[in-house]
Design goal:
The complex is a heterodimer of chains A (254) and B (316). Chain A contains ten helices and ten strands. Chain A has helices at residues 43-49, 80-86, 101-111, 117-130, 134-137, 150-162, 180-193, 206-212, 230-235, 240-246, and strands spanning 5-14, 17-27, 32-36, 60-68, 71-72, 87-90, 168-172, 198-202, 215-220, 223-229. In chain B, strands 1-2 form a two-stranded antiparallel sheet. Chain B is flat, with a radius of gyration of 26 Å. The chains are: A alpha/beta (254), B mainly alpha (316). Chain A binds chain B through residues 51, 53, 56, 58, 81-82, 84-85, 88-89, 91, 93, 95, 97-99, 107-108, 111-112, 144, 146-147, 157, 160-161, 164, and chain B through 116, 198, 200-201, 203-211, 214, 218-219, 222-223, 313-316. Bound molecules: adenosine-5'-triphosphate (ATP) and magnesium ion (MG).
Amino acid sequence: MSGRLTAENFHLWYGENHALKGISLTVPEREVFALIGPSGCGKSTFLRSLNRMTDLVEGVKRKGRILLDGQDIYLPGIDVTRLRKRVGMVFQKPSPFPMSIYDNVAYGPRIHGVKARSQLDGLVEASLRAAALWGEVSDRLKKPALGLSGGQQQRLCIARALAVQPEVLLMDEPTSALDPLSTGKIEELILSLRSRYTVVIVTHNLGQAVKVSDQAAFFLDGTLVEWGPAPELFGMPKDRRTEDYITGRRSLDG
Amino acid sequence: MVKNILRSRGNLSRAERSRKFWDSFMYWCFSLCGLSAIAAVCGIAAYMVLAGTPAINEIGLFHFLLGSRWEPTAPQPAFGVLPMILTSVAGTALSVLASVLVGTLTAVFLEELAPNRLRQAAQATAALMAGLPSVVYGLVGATLLVPLVGKAENALFRGSSSHIFTGGANLLSASILLTVMILPTAIQVGGISLRAVPRELREASLALGADRTETAFKVLIPAARPGIVTGAVLGTGRAMGEAMAVMMVSGNAVNFPLPFHSVRFLTTGIVTEMGYSSGLHRKALFSIGLALFVWILATDLILEALVQREGGGQSA
Ligand SMILES: Nc1ncnc2c1ncn2[C@@H]1O[C@H](COP(=O)(O)OP(=O)(O)OP(=O)(O)O)[C@@H](O)[C@H]1O
Ligand SMILES: [Mg+2]
């Protein structure tokens, strides 16, 4: 168990809309993998396919395989709850639950059966430390999470995701709703997570992708144009379309 | 060219003037509507106070509110409304609690677990039921519910010499009927408040590995609580103001509220005797109206304050 993800010729349709057209790539364990591409190209759809959040949409069809440590996550017998425990997710908009900071972080562990107070205390502290939030909230764990600033809320959501001890962390534009200072903190945080987790991050901020990612993939109109080590993809893209996107010739956006 | 620009400028300012006119016109329209609503409420309040106080002065506030005998036509008339007040409180509280509980759970089931078809059918039914006139509920209650409750009563109190049999027309029937009457609104309001919970919260919970039931009970219901309380306010209003249906199933005798007692609510107290009352009796009925008015107002204010506090907690 290490958190290595592989997509093999993966297709996804929303009704008639062919949103992913045969994606094949490998996310190596304990690296940060960035998904970039213009709006509507299928980044979020691919990300949400990795923890089966796309199951929630009605009328979704798929083809192909996604493997987590070699095991197909769409096999009939798979326990989606366990899969999502292993593959955590952080969303674009900070979404703390309307409860205390402590209860937010303890939510996942409690769901998965952790009851002992001391164990919960330990998990909450470790997760908040890993999310670089402990120092700011350690004296008000019982206060409502909605009283935190936007940046703090997002780090709380990261802590909440880490508290179930996942192997993979999926992040969908985690800083797009935040100010530059909070964004910087979360970027540092992502870099620090790399030693223990596999991170897949969607971002529209190319600077951010360059800063945090080891590998990157460029999506366009539901297809994977190219992927590989980030320095190569950003430094000397093989495909003309990637180059156009990176150099800001956004003619592809329309 | 220059001419064109000038002309278009002239048009612009004319359009702007007309916009300004409409803006202030609508402003006055809205103000007028708002003011007349406030005036109507104040007028009714003033009338209730004027019409309701004389009898209370004559009877004495203490005897009126805390007296337990209501015998307006006896040689020595008594005007105590305590049994009716307690009946209204008990009947309303029971039915609001029951319907909010059942309604919220139903809404959770429909919104989160039920297949689309079933949800749509149930929502259409709830909308229909919420609009049914209360006489219809009264008729169904009197012909179906009352005999059923009567059977239960007979079984429960078989051989008892002290129990006064109600034939099923009692507080229990009235509370059940009120519950059923409020339930559609509770389901609708519950559904609306659940749907208003941001999608992110639901997804965040599911993404942590919670199943749909855990998500509903641990995240969605707490997040929807302000809306659910609002539903309780609406239900309380309907339950307290209801007279017609309640009169048909409650037995309409002035008694303290126990499940198998025939009881009279404040509202039915007024309706029952308005036709033939006169003198102090009639004035006392207006006092009942005043009591009802004050009480509904107080309940509303308290529940609103609760909602405000909940809302504050949410956005803080
Ligand atoms: N829940 C959904 N139901 C139906 N169609 C959807 C749904 N989500 C996405 N789509 C469609 O799938 C395609 C890919 O959308 P997706 O959200 O994955 O793009 P994206 O790359 O994340 O875009 P953005 O950068 O704007 O977030 C789009 O055509 C979109 O309209
Ligand atoms: Mg997206």
